[in-house]
Amino acid sequence: MIKFYLTISLLFISTLAFSQKTFREYFNEGMAAYEAKDYKLYLEVMQTLDEIRPNNPAVVYNLAGAYALNGRKIRSVQRLNQLLLMDATYDFQQDGDFKKIRRNKGYDELIALQAKLNRIEEHDEVFRTIDAGEIHPESFVIMDNGDILLGSVREKKIVRVDPEGSRIDLVKTEYAVLGMHIDPANGLLWAATSAMPEMIDYNPADKGKSLIMQIDPSSGVVIQGLEYDEGTTIGDLAIDRESRVWLSNSLEPSLARSNADTTDYTGPFMRKQLDLANGFFNPQGLALNDNEQYLYLADYITGIHRIDTETDDVVKVFAPEEILLKGIDGLYYYENSLIAIHNGVKPYRVMQYFLDETGQYILFGRVINQGGASLGEPTLGQVKDGYFYYLANSPWIAYNEDRELDLSKVKPIEIRRIKLN
Amino acid sequence: MRTRILLFLVVIFQSNCLLGQSLTLEYVDQYIQMSQPEMEFGGREKLYVVDGVPYDSVGIGSKLVKYNLDDKFLSIDYLFSDSISTTIFKPNLLIVLIHKTSPLKLKDKKKELQKVREAFLSVSEFPAFLINDKQLSIEEARQSLSVLKPRSIDHIRINKHAPLSIYGADAKNGLITIWTKN
Lengths: 421, 182
Hints:
- Chain A has 6 helices and 25 strands.
- By secondary structure, chain A is α+β, with helices and mostly antiparallel strands.
- Chain A folds into 2 domains: about 110 residues, Serine Threonine Protein Phosphatase 5, Tetratricopeptide repeat, CATH 1.25.40.10; about 290 residues, TolB, C-terminal domain (Neuraminidase), CATH 2.120.10.
- In chain A, strand 20 and strand 21 form a beta hairpin.
- In chain A, helix 3 packs antiparallel against helix 4 and helix 5 runs parallel beside helix 6.
- The longest helix of chain A is centred in the first third of the chain and has 16 residues.
- Chain A is globular and about 65 Å long.
- By secondary structure, chain B is an alpha/beta fold.
- Chain B folds into 2 domains: about 100 residues, no CATH class; about 80 residues, no CATH class.
- Helix content of chain B is about 35%, strand content about 25%.
- Chain B contains 6 helices and 8 strands, in the order ααββαββαββαβαβ.
- In chain B, the strands form 2 sheets. In chain B, strands 2-1-4-3 form a 4-stranded mixed beta sheet, with helices on one face.
- In chain B, strand 1 and strand 2 form a beta hairpin.
- In chain B, helix 1 crosses helix 2.
- Chains A and B meet through helix 6 and strand 22 of A and strand 4 and helix 4 of B.
- Chain B: InterPro entries: Plug_dom_sf.
- Chain A: InterPro entries: TPR-like_helical_dom_sf (IPR011990), WD40/YVTN_repeat-like_dom_sf (IPR015943).
């Protein structure tokens, strides 16, 4: 069996909620059991690892193998199904551990699913191509006059690009620009900026710091800011009708809502805080539904959750078996559907998921783009005038080990779109 | 005439069950028709959704073969497009949902069980209720739900519609099916 030690070692770095040693010990124990052909113990250990860190491809792959080796064919097929939805590039067909399930009814379906997931589907179109890859945009906002604001991770600034392609620096920011949204109530821009190793002049002492900025998009004047001094990487935000800002923190899982009712640049704000340490790993995209009763939150590992904005009740959003809500970065709401940008799966995909009347169950999904040539790393987007726009190729892949941007690997930024109705 | 057609459908439906055959489009259509006999089913525009993937009536046939009619976790339900969005879909489109009931984590079982208990607090409009394939009366259901522990639940399924001819008049309010671990 092909074992994925590298993935597991990377996992140790990001598994903050659990002891690194404990996880490593578990994994080593599992591998030792496998080598000793103690498949019962191997299965038990992989089940434990799956509880600790759900939806990890390497763990799920080993778990599927463990089920097969223990004769639990249906479970093995189910886990391989789950694996393929996360990473359809695994060559499980060559793995002898799955010999026992090859005649199982579900095995042929797995092969068909793998082929389906690796099939390129592009139902969207190019909206704009902008030669701005070197600033490493992660997010953008399309203005009513056709200008596009790009938020730079690398150069810590927001630039404005007019329809002819002319570019000016709108505002310098403290940290890397991640999520950006316009407040529809007043037309002001909110930008989430967080200290990232990929930004120029990164100081490790700034790790965990974020500054949420309110900016006049016409002049670039900074109106106010919300400071977070530790434990944060705020990757996305949502603005409600009362101009309150919802923020998702991926470094120490939490969700905050701030009342932006002061003109002090770094003044005090009324904050509502939801601690998501239990059951959340990496909160990312946020999307309010039309009446703002619910806020949808994508956790990169565990999927989409729905928060009742009045009661703070958090429920999981359920999906059918062929839909896995993992690896979602940007998340958007449109007419009782959720648009999700999956950049934590292979191949990358952008999906629209249709919800039932309750808003808690996904009925079905449609592919907007799956594995298209443009999808460098799709990140964030915007719903505007019946279209969904998204940034298709944020150049995260162009960084070397020292977090320096290799310009030879950087391509022009592509914003793609699809009509939603 | 309508009664006779319905009786005919029930006979086909039940005989199919006994045969343990693969699921077919014909079976699905009969199932939906029996869930809402007054609906003009034939000429209605439909979208079939299998495990979260939409198909039209032409493409769906081969996708149903993987389901056995005797699979207790097979779920068939439907809704009308107007109930979820008035702009994305064609008006009054019948969306037929076919999937296997998924296992839940304990905390989700708790929430689903709570939802079911709330459904049975209703004075008059309660759904049909099955536990381990045995249909219970409203009083039996309430009693069973009062002692049921989330931990002892294996699977739980809530359908908005089910064939009235099989599950009785309460099925017009939906069908709740629970399997316990024992």
